[in-house]
Amino acid sequence: xxxxxxxxxxxxxxxxxxxxxxxxxxENELDILDQIKSYRSFKAGEAIQWRGEELTHVSSVVxxxxxxxxxxxxxxxxxxxxxxxxxxIGRPGRETLDFDVVATSDVTLCSFERKPFERLLAExxxxxxxxxxxxxxxxxxxxxxxxxxGRKTAREKLATFIQMLVQRSSIEGSHIPNLTLPLTREDxxxxxxxxxxxxxxxxxxFRKEGILEFSDRRNFTVNDHAALLDATGDDADGGVIx
Amino acid sequence: xxxxxxxxxxxxxxxxxxxxxxxxxxENELDILDQIKSYRSFKAGEAIQWRGEELTHVSSVVxxxxxxxxxxxxxxxxxxxxxxxxxxIGRPGRETLDFDVVATSDVTLCSFERKPFERLLAExxxxxxxxxxxxxxxxxxxxxxxxxxGRKTAREKLATFIQMLVQRSSIEGSHIPNLTLPLTREDxxxxxxxxxxxxxxxxxxFRKEGILEFSDRRNFTVNDHAALLDATGDDADGGVIx
DNA sequence: CTGCCGGTTTGACACAGATCAAGGTGGCGC
DNA sequence: GCGCCACCTTGATCTGTGTCAAACCGGCAG
Lengths: 242, 242
Fold this sequence. Notes:
2 copies of one chain form a homodimer. Chain A contains 7 helices and 11 strands. Chain A has helices spanning about 25-35, 115-125, 125-150, 155-170, 185-190, 195-210, 225-230; strands spanning about 40, 45-50, 55-65, 65-70, 75-85, 90, 100-105, 105-115, 180, 210-215, 220. The first copy, chain A, has a 4-stranded antiparallel sheet with strand order 1-8-3-6. A 4-stranded antiparallel sheet of chain A has the order 2-7-4-5. The interface of A and B includes residues 68, 99 and 132 of A. The first copy, chain A, binds a DNA duplex through helix 6.
């Protein structure tokens, strides 16, 4: 097995304590989780779970990035989910998943055996409520993503993706406009429903227009945030009629 | 207001009793719901809820079809949800929705005021559990839809859509291969991320190939189901290696 | 019966993005 | 330090689908 064990962290000191599926749990409930959890680690590029494979565990991502993706017969691939720390993997009540889960960076999971977790879920409204909330958040994100996939141009798709990175980093840290791409060009293409060549060309275009400035292939800054926002195709603002 | 009142039906006799958000409720819980519910009706084409508008009610679709859709600045539109009887509208904990909800046929809703419903939700695990399950079902559907939008050709998109209709009708009734399109060409295009012209051309193509046979613009039969399945681009079967 | 109108079909053409192909770049093992 | 390999860039060309335009069909109001 490709499973490495990682040092145990108490739930109360866990970095994802307040955003994961356990976010609403009280001390007693955390104690129960603490007893049945285990950590699993995966190297960048490793599969965490294949489509159709029996789902023995459900997990929260503690650290790293994983992707959910679907593949057509002839190899065409579409990413359908991007998992960041605190996101949940697995569906209580189902024996399998209908997509592949792959570690994009090194990943650490906080895992529970599926059956005991399902029992706990039935008895612990704090967990099922949080799970419902997380599913609805993901559904909202999926609907934005559907608009992007169905109607946006390559330029708009990439601008939207970068804007997403900007927003996420400005939540976490201060307003440092220095960003790192968490995915390869190929993964970005899979995310956006494009080819890697088109992604590369659009990056070049943004660079030529002075909107982005790259220090190397993975790191860049946003020089013209207004232009970036404009390129996303989304409603620019909240009500200024021109 | 465009709200018509409809004759009251007891929850225990409700046609969507076993699939809607109330599916897991016991008699006592149904009594509570019965007291706070009201029916609202909308004519085909009417808006049920605009994006950003204050969400006063959450509802279950009792009868009819409604769509969820998102629009870009310049008018490009993408359907992001198709609501059939038993589906739920509204998000507990949010004051607004981020998409438009429109009645495609005449629609009857079973509605609850949002605030009281949220209180009930916090106290009634049977409701929150069912809501979570429904959100996760929708998420699964959204992920299939993302694969379609991002990677499938126009032909595959339309074949997949028709196959969806076939499956749904064969669940409900017997194996009658006589189907009715629940949407206009324009709505189908919005569903599939295409233009209405392309949808029309693909229908014509299927007709010319003898896969579909139309009695009029809205009604048809599937003459060659194997060819239809083949055209979806999905995994044809469960493991036969050729 | 006639004319209108929403929904649909069909055609001609344009173009965004896919595909195919050829390098370029940088990090890492030896 | 050399060479390999994964990742990325750029160019040339092709093609599926969008766009624009015209006409068709069927139902319904008058």
